[in-house]
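Regression test attached.
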Amino acid sequence: MNEPYGWWLPINISANGAPIDQLITTLHWFMVLLFIGWGIFFLYCLFRFRARPGHQADASPKHFRLPTYLEVGVALFEVFLLVFISYPIWSKVKNDMPSDEEAMVVRVTAEQFAWNIHYAGKDGIFGQTSPDLISPEDNNPIGLDRENDPNAKDDIISINVMHFPVNKKVKVYLSSKDVIHSFGIPVMRVKQDAIPGTVIPVWFEANKTGTFEIMCAQLCGVGHTRMRGEIHVDTEEEFQKWLQDEAQYLDEYSDAGQREDDSDV
Amino acid sequence: MSSHHEEGFIRKYIFSTDHKVIGIQYGLGAMFFLLMGFGLMLMMRWQIAFPGKSIPFIGKLLTQDGILSPELYNQFGAMHGTIMVFLGVVPMAVGAFGNYLLPLQVGAQDMAFPKLNMASFWVFFVGGLVMLYSFLLPGGAAQSGWTSYPPLSNIAPAGQTAWLIGMVFLITSSLLGSVNIIVTAVQLRVPGLSFFRLPFLVWAQLVTSFLLLLAFPPLEAAGVLQLMDRVFGTSFFMPSGLVVSGQALEVSGGGNPLLWQHLFWFLAHPEVYVLILPALGIVAEIVATNTRKPLYGYNTAVYAIIFLGFMSFIVWAHHMFMTGMGTGMSAFFQATTMIISIPSVIVLTVLLLTLWGASIRFTVPMLFALAFLPMFAIGGLTGLPLGLTASDIYLHDTYYVIGHFHYVVAPGTLMALMGGVYHWYPKITGRMFNKTLGKLHFWGTFIGMNGIFAPMFFIGMAGVSRRLYDATIYEMARSVQPLNVIMTYSSWLLAAAQVLFLINIFASLRKPKEAAADNPWEATTLEWAAPTPPLPHQNFPEPLEAYRGPYEYNTTSREFAPQHLQEA
C-alpha cells in the first residue's frame, strides 16, 4: 500500500502491530469464506425449494451431520485463535511492560479536550504534580510544582504533540484530569482508556519516522472530535534536538515569566 | 367463561387491562419512538456526511444557521441510542409482540396479571414522557452517550438527571412486564401444551423475560446511585482530585468510574440478547409457516437459547477491554465471548437447515425473515474480531463496532419485527395489507440498511473513532469520507421505505374486514385458532386444548395440523 490511509487498515508503524494486523486479516478471510459458503447454501435452498405447483415440502425428519462437524471445526478454530494468538498478543502488548529503565518514560494526562504530554526533562525525574496547582492561565495544565520541587524545573510539557524516537520502547503512564478519554493511535495499533483516578501504563515502539494522529476513542464531551493529537516519530538526533529546543525555550520562558511577574507588581 | 359488561371508551382503549389493547398501545408507542430515534439519526448523518452545512428543510428549526451544533450532536447521539434500545426495540419486541401474542400462543384468556400489565405500559409511558421532556431542559437532553459513563455524565447538564429518572421508570416497566410474561408462559398454558410444544417465540420471550428480570435491577440500582451522585453530592462514581476546565470539582471523591461500567454492562450485555431473542422467535414462526415444515432441531434451538441466556450474564466485561484489564480477566471474558457465539450459531443453523426440503412461500413477512438470516450472520461474524482482545485493541470504539451491533439490531432485529408486523397484521386487524407496497418496503429497507451499515466496517477498519462530530479534521478519516455520503443517501432511502410501511399498515385499516384473515397463512399455532380480532378479555370463544407440537406442517396426511386439532 502506497497511500498511508485507505479503506482498510492504515499504515502500521508499530513493532507490535504486525501480529494484530495479521489476526485481523486472517479473521476477515475466515469470516468472508464462512459467509460465502453459507450464502451459497442459503441461496441454493431458496431457489431449489421455492413453492411451485407440484412441489411439496418434505417434512420427514432428517439429521444433517455436516453442520455439526462445521460447528465443531469453527469452535476449534476459535479456541486456536484464543489460546495461540489473542492471549499471547494481549499478554505482550498490555502486560509485559518494559521496565522504566529500558524505555523512554512519558506521562500523558488527558483533559477536555487535549493531551498533555509530560517529559521528565534532563534530570530524568518527573516533578511532583498536584491537582490544586492546575491552572490553565499560568500555563500549568497538569499542576506541576515548579516552585518547590527541583525535579520539576526542567520538566517539559507539550500539548497535543508527542515527540519520541524511532526504534525505542516508549512507556506512557496514562491518566486523566476530568472524564474518561481513550488514547488511540491507530497507526501504532495502540488504544487505552485514560481513567481519572487511575494511572495505566501503555507501551509501544515505532519502526518508522513521520507525523501521525492521536484520536480520542471515548466520548469525552462536546469537543470529543477536536481532541486530536499528533505523534512525531523522530530519529534519535531529531528527538535530542527537539528536547534541547524545548529545554532552551523553557529557560527563556521562565525568565520571561519572571520578568513579567515583576513588572506586574 | 368470563361474562363482561360493555366497557366505556377509556376503559376499553386507554386504561385497558386487555393484553391485546396493551400490546397495540406498546406497538404504537414504540413505533413513534423508533421513528423519532431514526429522525435524530437522519440529522446526525447529515452532519457526518456534510460537516458544517445546514440541514435542509428543518435545520433552521434547530439552530440559527441550521447547522447541527456539537452539543445537539451529542444529545441526539445519546438519545438515539437510548430511544432505540429502551423506548423502541424493547417495547416493540417484548411489550408489543410479547403482550399481544404470548397469551394467544399459550391459549390463555389474558396475561396472568392484567392490572400489572396495564401498570407496566403506563410506567413506560411516563418514562417516555420524561425522556422527551429532557430535550426542553436548559442544556438539553442527556449527552454522554446511551452508556452514560461517569464522570462525564455526572458533570453533564440537567438532561442527564431526567435521563436517569426516565430510566428508572423504563426499567420498572420492564420488570413488571417480564414477571407477567414468565408467569403467563409457565402457568397459563392450556392443557396439553407442554413446554416442548410451545411455539419458539414463547420460549424466546420466556428467556428474554428472565434476562430482563435478573439483569435490569443492577442497572436500576446504578441509575439511582448516579442520581445520588448528581443530586445529593455522593461520589459513588467520582474519584478524588478531578479538575474540569481548570476548576477543581467539589466532590468528596473516593469513588470509581469503572464501577458504573460494570453495573451498566451487567445489564446492557444481556440487553443485547433481549433485543435479539424475540426477533429470533418471530423469525422462527415466520420461517416454519412459510417453509411448510417443522423447524429443524426445535429442541436443540430451545436448549441453545436457554444456554445463551445463562452465558449472557458472564460476558459483560468484553465491552471494557480497554479499561486497563489484566491478562487473567481479559482471558476469561474473551473465552466466554467465544463460547456464547456457539448457541447463536446453532439457532441460525436451525433456521437455515429448516429451508432444506421446504416449499418456500415468498410472502412479505417471509422476505423479512429470510433477509434477517444473512444480516444476523454478518452481525454475529463481525463480533469475532471485537471479542478477541488482540484485534479489539485496534477496533474498539471505532465505526466497526457500530457496524457490528447495528447489523444485529437494525437489519437484524428491526427487519424481524417488521416481518412480524406483516405476519400478524391480519390476525390483529382482520385485514390483509397491500402486498406490492409490502415488497417495495422490504427492498427499500433491505438496500437502505445495508447501504448505511456495510460501509461502517470500512470506516472502522480505517481506524475512525465513533461519536465524532466532524471526523474530517483527521487526515486518516478523509479517505473514507465518501462512504459517509453514500450512507447518508442510503438513510434517505430507508426513510422513504418506512413511509410506504406506514401508509400500508394504516391505509389497509380502511379496507373491509375479510373472513380469510382468520388464518391467511395456514399456520398451526394457537393464536390462529382465535377469532379475528381475538375476543376482548377472553381471546377464544371456547377453552382450547393442545394435541401436538407447534409446527406440524406436512408431517401427517394433512398439509398442516393446527395445535388444537384433536384428530390426527
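Expected vs. actual: identical. The two ends of chain A are 60 Å apart (CA to CA).
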